[in-house]
Amino acid sequence: xxxxxxxxxxxxxxxxxxxxxxxxxxxxxxxxxxxxxxxxxxxxxxxxxxxxxxxxxxxxxxxxxxxxxxxxxxxxxxxxxxxxxxxxxxxxxxxxxxxxxxxxxxxxxxxxxxxxxxxxxxxxxxxxxxxxxxxxxxxxxxxxxxxxxxxxxxxxxxxxxxxxxxxxxxxxxxxxxxxxxxxxxxxxxxxxxxxxxxxxxxxxxxxxxxxxxxxxxxxxxxxxxxxxxxxxxxxxxxxxxxxxxxxxxxxxxxxxxxxxxxxxxxxxxxxxxxxxxxxxxxxxxxxxxxxxxxxxxxxxxxxxxxxxxxxxxxxxxxxxxxxxxxxxxxxxxxxxxxxxxxxxxxxxxxxxxxxxx
Length: 357
What we know:
This protein is 24% helix and 24% strand. The protein has 357 residues and is of the alpha+beta class. A hairpin with a 7-residue loop joins strand 5 and strand 6 (159-163).
């Protein structure tokens, strides 16, 4: 009786080049459609936000529900927070905010300072969760927790926004900026505001101003095997990460080119007054590329086990990033940098010419 010989499984043929390109094209079309859909949804949200009655808590809550359904969590949170500002007893809005925020996270309004057109300055808590701006690439929404500076110049130059996700000229879509200050709730109009500076919590210490001591790992004591700092190997100094040990950083005013644009565009290009055409500045965080070790604070060898010499047994140390203030160092505007450069040039003593015989 003859036995049947099993046939080997067919070897799959590799996909043709045309099939591969067809798959890539389909993926690209899907991504483009998703981007178009998101832009359309964001545009529809903007229309609804502009048409609602800003004094009615119910309309803000309804728009928040719509934004949440459209997968716009930032915009939804903004509307639910506006609902609570108008109706503090609204438990539904509080519950919706709790759904959007991560577990254990408490919403807090960013602190800001309004610089008015007349020079007055007002410190307050900004009651806006998101800022809507019109850029050259289309409308975008930026959480106010990620914004450093808003310069309201208006046409023809446009406004300027400095944030984590976007920095440049744009049109800020807001006629007023509701805020809470000591005297109560205010709503300064954009025509009366020159600049809004937001004070953000330090990312390293989360606004606490202090951190767990790294030298003793928060124990307040050093064991016998930790008497020498492992971060700097007992040297007390480390290479600066801000400048990668070069001692120089790119000039923030000219972007490293050494030139800035004058009044007449390219024909008016002039030497950068801050770096004097060098394109670089001395690194403010180190001394010629090296800095004190942040772990041992320049005390790399304790000699013996016992109380930590860095925190003196307190288990925490002042945050080096914010110098204990708990706030992120805000960037400076172009006008502020130019003013500082001009002041530095003015204060610099002029060399005394050598006497002639």
